[in-house]
Amino acid sequence: MTGADRVLVSERIGQLFLDTERGRDRLEYTEYGSGDSWVVLLPGLLMPRRMHDHLARALASNGAHVVTLDLLGHGRSDKPADPLVYSVTSFAEQVVALLDHLGAPQAVVGGTSLGANVSLEVAVIAPKRVRGLILEMPVLDTALEAAIIAFAPLLLTARFFPGALTGVRWATRAVPRGVVPWWLGIGLDTLDQRPGPVAAYVHGLFFGRAAPSLRERKAITAPALVVGHPRDPLHPVADAELLSEELPNSTFERARSIMEWRLRPERLDLAATKFVLDCWRGPQRRQRSTNA
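The line above is the sequence of Alpha/beta fold hydrolase; the predicted structure tokens follow.
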């Protein structure tokens, strides 16, 4: 089905409550379409779930039942100021809790950047719940130094100059989202952060588990679509290529630019849609391929 043939799909906002030692955490998600071909999409670092609105609608219009989730600390979900609650493992546990909440035995789980790492972690802690993986811009060994350089200033600013983040937050809130391009609105939402939770979030991710180990990655048998971007210092294409080689049942797709899936999504939407439909057609042998 082409973009011109897509059908309208239902969209519903839901909430998931998780009981913790601190009380209750609330997570918010959006559900697209219906049926048993579940897909869960996870956002990048500090980004809202609506970054995947377009892909979710494309998949749902082709028959998938898609859920986009704001992980703890993201978007409209709760944002506690406790670094102990933020880790790739705890995020993966939230995804499993979401599947339980929805009554979904399995799902294709995917995400961008942090969302890709969390998807890998779901495949490690709950392999029977993962039908397939969509992994865009994973952050692995090659990217760790760049990530530290990029986000250490954010941690220091949130800890020692919280007024700067508060000022940015109020400035971004003053911009009506309806009058700016969609991706600029996503960026403004990402900047809408309170200092305490941001400091806790970055601290937790810096000093916690960032991704499954090499041994664990090689043991993941679920089909995987790995998407890498050229000329992206925070998400080197080498990490994506290496991950595709490590996963025994993967396909590698090279994006034409960092922004292709955001600004000209048709080609990669088609690749993701084909992958999801293949995953839900039943067990198949998939051949590794690389697209230039």
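Note on the example: Residues 3-143+208-291 form a domain with the Rossmann fold fold (CATH 3.40.50.1820). The longest strand covers residues 11-20.
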